[in-house]
Amino acid sequence: MYNEQYRPQLHFSPKENWMNDPNGLVYYKGEYHLFYQYHPYSMVWGPMHWGHAVSKDLLHWEELPIALYPDELGQIFSGSAVVDAQNTSGLKTSDEDVMVAIFTHHGEDNEKQSIAYSNDCGRTWVKYEGNPVIPNPGQKDFRDPKVFWHEESGKWVMSLASGDCIRFYGSPNLIDWELLSAFGSEYGAHGGVWECPDLIQLSVEGEDQKKWVLIVSINPGGPNGGSVVQYFVGEFDGLEFVCDDSADVVKWADFGRDFYAAVTWSNLPEPTWIGWMSNWQYANQVPSEPFRSAMSIPRKLGLSRINGEFTLLQTPIDLSSLYKEVVVSNETIALKSSETYRVKLDHRQLFAQANVMDSTASEFLISFRGEQERLEIVFDRKRKEVRIDRKESGQVSFSEHFASMDRMPLAEFSDFTLILDKTSIELFVNQGSNVMTELFFPLASEFTLEFRALDGELVLENVELRHLESTWK
Ligand code: FRU
């Protein structure tokens, strides 16, 4: 089990069949719940259910029975879940706190918001008999409710994607909702429809202040094509979100092709999110079997002021409990111009981290090479960008959109963290302020990792290369 050719060994994927967005992320009594858009009868997108998995550490997941099935109101599209500890909803019937899921019913007629509740730690769910709780107001795209308790105004607040903007609703009890405001028609990127919002508050690193961050997925319209997550930084007073930046500023959370629909866990003090590791441009065609799609590594979120700009920081959760063999630990690797450092990898789960010092090199290359293929990351100081080239990374022809060279603007780099799994690479640069997530489907079974400097020298310090054990056990 869980050892097929393209089965991620560090990332959650369903045992079988189709998965997309993470849904209903909520923490309760030592368990992280991960619900997800799921089509249990096929490996392509179809009538949506909420699949369900739980974890005690965000690394090892146990798949549970399907939580929500489609019904006469429609399919169960994306949404969120909260712990209603004060029983504001009146839906509590046991000693456990009641968990309430807020989701979109996608009917043939339209999209509307509904709720369901669980009194047994998320194991079984009952749909509320008064559904929908927010009927459709005559808007075609009207979905993906994300709810949190807004302490200052003493109410639940919902962010909802509504065509080209995010609407905010407020409620005392998760059942009766009133429209508060809307944001975004004039702001940010609009290359596609807005989806899967999340509104969170983050402390600014090294400052005594907090800011509100509005997360919005958009599909298509990504800087490298297809699905992507953007974010806005500003203030929220319980009524309205006001963006700090001017309307034309666009902030991308991840420049890679494969990080979408990311949202945060509810009821967790440390803001942590996870994204769907694919792209609508080719998600239905990727060559994995008997399942399609995995989630990203869960990432802790922070906010930092970098060159005057509030910037999202993403740090992968601690993987040290998975450390297996040490390939290299706390080493310094000095590369002369055109010199290549090579190390053979025993298997594909790898954690790599280094600080980059004294670099005069115009390019720094990290490659994963199989016999006839390679995935290459290029830090290019002349062009001030990082590129990931997956054009010759193995199977690429299943979709015309897949074989790509993807770019992220970046002037200088001081450190990087890499997480490599069977079919993915996640790259975090400069303390996680610049991130790229990309899939690839290698054919080779043996791999070499290479570091190479071009047109100058470069020193890597505190280099850690660790193989990681599988999380499926
Ligand atoms: C985002 C999305 C959501 C929708 C769901 C349907 O990937 O399109 O907007 O709720 O997927 O599966």
TrEMBL record:
Residues 11-316 form the Glycosyl hydrolase family 32 N-terminal domain. GO terms for cellular component: cytoplasm. SUPFAM superfamilies: Arabinanase/levansucrase/invertase, Concanavalin A-like lectins/glucanases. GO terms for molecular function: sucrose alpha-glucosidase activity. The keyword Hydrolase applies. Residues 332-465 form the Glycosyl hydrolase family 32 C-terminal domain. One of its GO terms (biological process) is sucrose catabolic process. Keywords: Glycosidase, Hydrolase. Belongs to the glycosyl hydrolase 32 family. The keyword Hydrolase applies. This is Glycoside hydrolase. It comes from the Bacteria. InterPro entries: ConA-like_dom_sf (IPR013320), Glyco_hydro_32 (IPR001362), Glyco_hydro_32_AS (IPR018053), Glyco_hydro_32_C (IPR013189), Glyco_hydro_32_N (IPR013148), Glyco_hydro_beta-prop_sf (IPR023296).
